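Q: Hi! First time doing this. I have a protein sequence and I read that you can turn it into a structure. Is that right? Here it is:
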Amino acid sequence: MTTIALIRHGSTSWNKEGRAQGSSDISLDEDGIQQAKHLGIRLGSEKWNHIYSSRLARAHQTAVIIGNAIGLEIQIDDRLKERSGGQIEGTTEQERLNKWGTDWRDLDLGIESIEDVQKRGNEFLEEINRKHPGEKILVVSHGALIQYNFNNLVPDYPSKHFDNTSITILKKIENKWTCELHNCTKHLEGIY
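A: Yes, that's right. Below is the predicted 3D structure, encoded as structure tokens:
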């Protein structure tokens, strides 16, 4: 049985400003680098076989820091990129309200559909599950991609927003995905 750990990237300045990042290529801020280092220390005491990452800087930087800590090379997969935000990328909620009004979510602003995000995420996870039977796989990606795919794969699990550098562990048992750990950030409190 394959163990898949979904990891959200470390924090960025846009996270702190409440800006929609989407496919914009934003780097980690200093806090994000430290968060990734703490997660690398935590994962260093465990055995992991592979690490996959989105190509976007914030996820890739997180993966490199973790990979260096545990001795794994990063494998890039473009299906792990964040949901494209279209015209809202780089804007805050207030800026969206000012520009498009309270119904901005109902407008066609070029935002990638949830279904498309789930489709590419699910294809990736199913492929990894088949390709690496019995192995432990780290997957560094983005909040919306993780959230929408988690909700799709484990619909009965009460889920919330995924925190920066949180780790969520999934396994597929008898054709059904299960969650063994959800949104865990104990490494940010120095608990390894």
